[in-house]
Task: structure prediction
Amino acid sequence: MPRLFPYSPAGWVRLAVGLACAGSAGAAEVPAGDAKAAVTARVDAEFPALEAIFHHLHANPELSFQEFETAALVAKELRALGLEVTEKVGNTGVVGVLRNGPGPTVLLRADMDGLPVKERTGLPWASRAVVRDLAGREQPAMHACGHDLHVTGLIGAARVLAAERSRWSGTLVCVAQPAEEIVAGARAMLRDGLYTRFPRPDFALALHVSSSRQAGEIGYVDGTPYASVSSVDIVVRGVGGHGSQPHTAKDPILLAAQIITALQGIVSREVKPGTPAVVTVGTIQGGTKRNIIPDEVRLELTLRSFDQKVMAQLVAAIRRICAGTAAAAGVPEDRLPVVTVSPESAPVTTNDSALVQRLAGVFRTWFGPERVTAASPSTGAEDFAEYGRTQPAVPIFIWSVGAADPVRYAAAARGGPSAPANHSPEAVFVADPTLRTSVASLAAAVLELAPRR
Ligand code: ZN
Ligand code: ZN
Result:
């Protein structure tokens, strides 16, 4: 049974009138059941300022582990609310802690990085930024995944929860995480003591906006919302030689072609039918001239699965096929293919079922059942998965908030082209009501999980 908001027992709590000074003189007495009304009024009051922050962040995206200005903005905002703020956690991450009496610790996470995409939305606040990536290369950049809305939503939730601190009791941990797009930031923050230097969460929450879901709608998955991703690199090594004398060489181009063909049999012949799995060879590079048999060919693969055992099966099959195909071609033992699973990998994201049911019930009460629906899992991946995989495990829940431009969404619903998805240079994320829903859902979740008793 989902536990519905408002929290019990019913009673009266104080509603602060200041923006960040709950319990101040002049606070009005309102029923505890009016928490939704109080939060909604607070969100409405904050909206213009939050929209301005969103436009600023959108026009000034930064790439993975380069989120210096974004992190500084988050730190300044959280400090202004009285949170204990620590910067440079896991490289460019920011942690803000608000201790508000006894009770559970709830972590809210927003990712900060943009993507190396040249924006083509034509919006007045569109990005024209050209910035350096981690490798020092100049790249056009865009918040094509909506992480600017996540950061703004986190700031909004912190403002609302600081102002409404009389309505909840516990500890709030606000996390601005770097480098989600290369699935490295969560690990970096956890390795840098996110769960040991700061209060360890009883619950970890996040949301992700979608440019193809109707703005303001909430979607949730009771199970695995995001697949795991493994990035695999293969170096197919041969013995180079003259193109006219293949008998003196071991041709890695032919070998790579045979390996790529054999890889197609993993999902179709080895994985149990009905089990989702993806093996995609995304790049192939080898050779310099038509009459030269090269020494090696390089392949880059992305793998997706919803089950770590299946992912392990995919990787093991790739290793076996590479070694076996090369051996069958007579490649010497010391020139067999090198298969590497790169760090750009993330485990499957698994929402805690009890937490999903509890908060989905809260969201239905707050936003109406028609705006809160069960969604299908995505073969995208999220490093938010890492927050729930520590020992002992922390229950996590990431939900989706629609951000699609209403005009384009309505046209798509009438059979027109679908609204451009996240990562598209034409992806449009509308602030209203996306930000209102984001901030209110985060605040509602904290009020539910850390009630004042
Ligand atoms: Zn993304
Ligand atoms: Zn994203």
